[in-house]
Amino acid sequence: MTARDPHRFINELDDAAIERLIARLESRAKDAIFARLFDKYVAQLALPPSAQVLEVGCGTGVVTRSLARHGDFSGKAFGVDHGRPFIEAASRFAQAENVGDRVEFRVGDAHDLDFSPATFDAVIAHTLISHVTDPTAVLREMARVVRPGGTLVIFDGDYASLTYAYPDHDFGHRMDVALANASFNNPLVMRDLPRLLPELGLEMAAAWGDVVSEIGKGSYFKSFAETYAPYVTRAGMLPAETVEAWLGAQRQAMENGTFFASCNYYTYFLRRA
Fold first, then answer.
1. What confidence score (pLDDT) does residue 210 get?
2. Is residue 175 part of a domain?
């Protein structure tokens, strides 16, 4: 059995697995870490009042909805995802949050966007590029649908840096690697972007990194571990009993204040020439 990124293959998952992914995306949205990273790049978007914004691979629409709730946003935000259950959830959440008139969610393929060229002022991929089948094709589509001079934002993790503390360092490292490879189709893609951009007609306007870490207590990485650790077992990477022991140790560390987890995240601000 090989690793199958659950976000990439969401349409093949059972209802329970889909609900766990929806819960993960929504709990992440409520975490202070997520809010801080999102607010950091949104503050630099400088969108016009009537901006048209697209989020590619929107999941449950967390970023799209957050953008629509910003007090200075009066345009329209679109979200596209290939997972129909995600889109259905996104639409429900948008109506519940009273932003349904400022957002629109569609089922669609990030590799072949159903929008005319030069439609959007900004296109955002928030933790998408690590999951897709062909990152270059997705970037090319994002560049196609943004207006000349428009902005592309690529935000994602460098999952080779993902690490949880574990007393057995050797097994802990193996679990870190397995967790990254079971959860992400392209765990190292953020390292590749500077090399890929020139051939796509994209210029790097800014880029920066953030270390996301939780020490003592865990919330962001608690949800991450509980959601994605089962996929390590399903991929046959490590035995179920050892994965459960690792997960139990993480829960215990959170309870007694000895928890540690960390990952590097990067933001790229790109301009279409």
1. 96
2. no
